[in-house]
Design goal:
single chain, about 30% helix, globular, DUF7003
Length: about 80
């Protein structure tokens, strides 16, 4: 739905900041990424995506996020999602 009604579906910057301290700044916003398949016991800590996000958070250097894996967060990639 975000592809069709993006502004109506996704949180605004103001909505995202509701629970964030004013002194904190956003350093990275990712809208698509490679998500681990937890059913297949693929852990976030074992995936490039979350390892790189960790490095960005630790260093504050956004250039540390250089994904090489195809994003898979679109719902069509998870046909059995919600059936566990």
């Amino acid at each position: 739905m975000a592809a069709i009604e993006r502004e109506a579906i996704l949180a605004t910057e103001e909505e995202r900041r509701i629970s964030i301290l004013p002194s904190m700044q956003q350093i990275l916003q990712i809208e698509e990424w490679y998500h681990p398949d937890l059913v297949e016991e693929e852990l976030p800590s074992q995936t490039e995506t979350f390892q790189q996000i960790s490095k960005v958070l630790e260093s504050g250097d956004v250039s540390m996020y250089q994904p090489s894996l195809e994003p898979n967060t679109h719902w069509k990639n998870w046909p059995d999602g919600g059936t566990l």
